[in-house]
Write a structure and sequence with these properties.
Layout (H helix, E strand, L loop, with lengths): L2 H14 L42 E9 L11 E9 L7 E12 L6 H7 L1 E2 L3 E5 L3 H15 L13 E5 L14 H9 L18 E2 L2 E2 L1 E8 L8 E10 L12 H4 L12 E9 L5 H17 L9 E14 L18 H21 L3 E2 L5 E2 L4 H10 L5
Parallel strand pairs: 5-6, 11-12
Antiparallel strand pairs: 1-2, 2-5, 3-4, 3-12, 7-8, 9-10, 10-11, 13-14
Helix pairs in contact: 3-4, 6-7
Length: 392
């Protein structure tokens, strides 16, 4: 047995023996996160909040838009949508973060991804919204950046905002493009560290996942000191999947709960996965981390259907890439590839758990034309997990 394999096995033993870190999170009435239900995904411990904000400097803000009932009036409502902002660090324009991204299935959009992959860095906050609001959210992001950096587009470079979308038209009047400039400003300016609201909030307000109510979910993992002590945090917008495929911690929950289906079939949907870490990773390593997020997604049961837009973007806060470099070179500390596998494990586990939290925290929602999407019933989930040996 090689010394590298021996070391990895020793790490897994160490991790399995490490108790999970206590965490707290806001909860809608009657809802709970996976760990509060006794469902522990994987073996690595979580960060303090079990959220993407466990990575120091990362902030999240939501604006949730809910109004109107009954028949769809295109351009007017009902409205079941919102916007979510993820800020990698304060002033990421002048102190860029290394980043990398992948596309699992491309029926969607994450603007600026080509430039992020080309340059190897992320220089703006990330905004999540509904499909038809991408243009308006992008325009609002440009206005926000101009306010933050008055020289932008005049004596400084122009900005390419990172905006990612999912289709919420089953519940929302998408043609109304109800996310306005002031909503984007509110999400960005109100972003904060600490516990993150989940479920039917922000960009997740109108999402459907595995024919249950989906939306925003988050989770984190903290590596032991022997593996670097790094933190990995993941935030997802879950809007995909067929009911019969749904698995939670490996248990085929979707096969057990065949009722509580929407009267009409929603679209095959999409998902956005944002991965943050404080590990010192280079862009190509972050692309590798982003690719592992799709393995965490696969563990929930998705097949990445034809009409699904599945995007993963990973960034590291370890290095500061200067906007105005003083020289032609910069000194960078980077993780050795031989030590990266624990970060892969952390990413897979956190992504899987984030999707589970999106489902268990979302609430039953009635949207346009009376379309009703039920929340995953937690009492039945607990019973299934216990009967199948899935609760720890």
């Amino acid at each position: 047995m090689s010394s590298r394999l021996t070391s990895l096995l020793a790490l897994l033993v160490l991790v399995a023996a490490t108790p999970a870190t206590a965490h707290e999170a806001p909860q809608p009435e009657g809802r709970a996160r996976l760990r509060d239900l006794g469902i522990t995904v994987g073996v690595l411990p979580t960060g303090k909040w079990n959220a993407i904000t466990d990575v120091p400097g990362v902030k999240v803000g939501h604006v949730t838009l809910v109004s109107g009932h009954g028949k769809l009036v295109p351009g007017q409502g009902p409205v079941r949508t919102g916007v979510t902002a993820i800020i990698p660090r304060d002033d990421v324009w002048h102190k860029k973060v290394f980043a990398g991204g992948v596309v699992l299935n491309g029926n969607g959009q994450m603007s600026a991804l080509d430039w992020i992959r080309e340059a190897g860095w992320l220089e703006t906050p990330i905004l999540l919204c509904d499909t038809l609001s991408v243009g308006r959210v992008t325009d609002a992001a440009i206005s926000w950046h101009a306010k933050q950096n008055p020289a932008m587009g005049i004596t400084d470079d122009v900005v390419l905002p990172c905006v990612a979308e999912c289709d919420d038209s089953f519940l929302n009047d998408q043609r109304g493009r109800h996310v306005k400039e002031h909503h984007v400003f509110q999400a960005l300016d109100g972003a904060k560290s600490g516990p993150v609201d989940e479920g039917a909030v922000g960009a997740g307000t109108g999402m459907v996942s595995y024919r249950f109510k989906g939306g925003i979910g988050t989770a984190s993992r903290k590596l032991p000191a022997a593996a670097g002590g790094w933190t990995v945090g993941v935030l997802v917008n879950a809007n995909l999947g067929w009911r019969e495929h749904l698995r939670i911690d490996g248990i085929p929950v979707g096969e057990e709960i065949k009722d509580l289906m929407p009267e009409r079939k929603p679209s095959e949907g999409s998902c956005i996965m944002i991965i943050a870490t404080d590990a010192p990773l280079l862009p190509n390593q972050l692309e590798r981390v982003a690719r592992r997020a799709t393995l965490g997604l696969a563990r929930t049961g998705t097949i990445a259907a034809h009409s699904s837009g599945d995007f993963a973007l990973a960034f590291s806060t370890a290095a500061e890439v200067p906007h105005d470099p003083e020289s032609g070179t910069m000194a960078i500390t980077a993780l050795n590839n031989a030590a990266i596998s624990p970060l892969f494990a952390a990413t897979v586990e956190a992504t899987e758990e984030a999707f589970g939290n999106a489902l268990t925290m979302a609430t039953t929602t009635v949207g346009r034309d009376g379309h009703k999407v039920y929340a995953l019933p937690l009492d039945r989930l607990k019973a299934i997990m216990k009967a199948r040996g899935g609760s720890k």
